[in-house]
Structure formats: structure tokens, C-alpha cells
Amino acid sequence: MSGKLEVLTPQNSQVIFIDHQPQMAFGVQSLDRQVLKNNTVALAKSAKVFDVPATITTVETTSFSGHTYPELLDVFPDHDILERTSMNSWDDQKVRDALAKHAADGRKKVVVSGLWTEVCNTTFSLSCMHDTDYEIYMVADASGGTTAEAHERAMDRMVQAGVVPVTWQQVMLEWQRDWARRETYDPVMDIAREHSGAYGMGVDYAYTMVHGAEDRTHHTGKTLDPVPAES
Questions:
Q1: Residue 17: HSE in the Cβ half-sphere, 13 Å Cα cutoff
Q2: Beta-carbon neighbour count of residue 106 at 10 Å?
């Protein structure tokens, strides 16, 4: 039976973030770059909630690409950053060792978020699958290409090679699986409310207007009653 028939769980997964750096993001045209950052940070927060190990790798930080998004590093303030020269993360031994350490614990489903889809994500995925028995789950909406065409053709190529395409919220909810798992219910809802757009707004509305929960802000100002202006 193919391992890809198994759903993602917090126990069988690990995550790698590849080259989420300003100069790499400047070149992304396949989706809005603020949306890209939102989705990437949401995936990172999801991994932290479920104790899924995360690897962060960068390329040519000081000479070209710039530093990793601060919002991503804020989620993992103690994580090492694995610097490389190669566009293919698999060419760096530190990256291989980090993934192998977690794979040895049964985490052979590698969830990938990176820039660019057609270069760093594709070469890493093909090389990693060629050399190991790991499975690659490519987070399409937390990765970006230099054009929509470049991103889509890269996704096509990877899927043909056996990569599984996913989205960040799909991954988070697959890890949650059952709303009866109360220890992660509220943190997952917090991520949804902050990062899931209209769905998150709907959760806020349901919590406050339907269930009478307090707003999740710490606003201390008053709400002033209407005062019709004199004509």
C-alpha cells in the first residue's frame, strides 16, 4: 500500500521552509506576496501547535537573498538557520542530516514551503525522493514562482514525479483531524482567525455574535452611541 494513502499526522510529518527571504520573494509573481507570507507563517504556526519539527534553510543570505522573514523566525526563535550556496537544498549535508534525524523517528512525510517553486522546491523534491524513501508534500499556496506559468508547470512536474500537492490550511486541518482533540482546538482556531481570510472572519463572528465570546482584541476605548448631526 502506498504511504501516500496515509493522512498527514503530527507524528509522521516534518516541515522544511526553503529560502523565505526578501530577494527571493521580490521575484514571486504567481501569487500576492503578502498572501504568500501570511500562508507561510500560518503553516509555521500550525507546525508549532502540533509539535511538528521544522527545518529552516536559506541561500546566500548576506550576499544576495537577505534575511528570513522576521514573522517566520518569531515562530521558531530558537531554531538554527541552515545556510547554503546551492539552489538545491539537498546538496547541503546539514539539510540532509536535519531531515534524516526526524525521518528516523518515523517522520518521512516532508511538508515543503519554499521559493521559488520552479527552482529550489523542484530540485530539492526530485533529489530527495531520488535518494530516499521520503514522501514530499508541496504546500502550493505557501510557495511561489516567478510567474504563474512557472509555478504551475513546476507543480505539474513534481506531481508527475510523485510529489503530493497540498495547501497550508489543508495540512493544518489534516493534523487536527478531529475537533474532539481539545488540546489543539483553540490554537488551531486562533490560527484560522488570524490567517484564514473570510473563514477566519466568520469564526470571529460566530464566536462573538452567536456564542457571546469576548473579542480577541484588548481594545480599551469606548463604543459611543450614535449622535445625529444637526441639519
A1: 30
A2: 12
